[in-house]
UniProtKB/TrEMBL annotation:
<dbReference type="GO" id="GO:0003677">
    <property type="term" value="F:DNA binding"/>
</dbReference>
<protein>
    <submittedName>
        <fullName>Transcriptional regulator, HxlR family</fullName>
    </submittedName>
</protein>
<keyword id="KW-0238">DNA-binding</keyword>
<dbReference type="InterPro" id="IPR036388">
    <property type="entry name" value="WH-like_DNA-bd_sf"/>
</dbReference>
<dbReference type="Pfam" id="PF01638">
    <property type="entry name" value="HxlR"/>
</dbReference>
<feature type="domain" description="HTH hxlR-type">
    <location>
        <begin position="15"/>
        <end position="114"/>
    </location>
</feature>
<dbReference type="InterPro" id="IPR036390">
    <property type="entry name" value="WH_DNA-bd_sf"/>
</dbReference>
<keyword id="KW-0804">Transcription</keyword>
<keyword id="KW-0805">Transcription regulation</keyword>
<dbReference type="InterPro" id="IPR002577">
    <property type="entry name" value="HTH_HxlR"/>
</dbReference>
C-alpha cells in the first residue's frame, strides 16, 4: 500500500479537496474512472486498448491504488489464463458527478483555448 501524504486531515481547512485529489489525482486515475463509468466492468486489456499510451506497469499501479482506496473492485476468476475484471465500488459510483464535472470543464477549457480537437459527437454537443 502506498504511503499517504498526511497522517490526518483537518476538514475545515479544505483538506477534503486534498484527500479527494490524493485518491483520484494523477495522470491516469481520472481517465480509468471515466472509462469504467462509461463502459461498466472492464478487463485489464480492455482498459489498455482504450488508452494505448498507458503502459501496463503504470496501469497496474494505478488500478492497485484505486482498489486500495476502495474506489474500484477487482474480481479474479479462477481460470487459466487468469481473468480479472475491474468495476466501480459504491465509493467509485459516488465520484460519478465529480468525474462528469471534470469532463465538462475540461471539454470547455480545450475548446476555449482553441486546442486542436479531433471532431466527434461529444465535441459537437459541447459547442452548442
Amino acid at each position: 500500500m502506498r504511503t499517504r501524504r498526511f497522517k490526518n486531515y483537518e476538514l475545515e481547512t479544505g483538506c477534503g479537496v486534498e484527500a479527494c485529489l490524493e485518491v483520484i489525482g494523477g495522470k491516469w486515475k481520472g481517465l480509468i474512472l471515466h472509462h469504467l463509468m462509461e463502459h461498466g466492468t472492464l478487463r485489464f486489456s480492455q482498459i489498455q486498448k482504450l488508452k494505448p499510451a498507458l503502459s501496463p506497469r503504470i496501469l497496474t499501479s494505478q488500478l492497485r491504488e484505486l482498489e486500495n482506496d476502495g474506489v474500484i473492485l477487482r474480481k479474479v476468476y479462477p481460470v487459466v489464463p487468469p481473468k480479472v475484471e475491474y468495476s466501480l465500488s459504491s465509493a467509485g459510483e459516488s465520484l460519478r458527478g465529480v468525474v462528469q464535472a471534470m469532463q465538462t470543464w475540461g471539454d470547455r477549457f480545450i475548446i476555449g483555448a482553441n486546442t486542436p480537437v479531433k471532431p466527434n459527437e461529444r465535441s459537437q454537443e459541447i459547442t452548442k
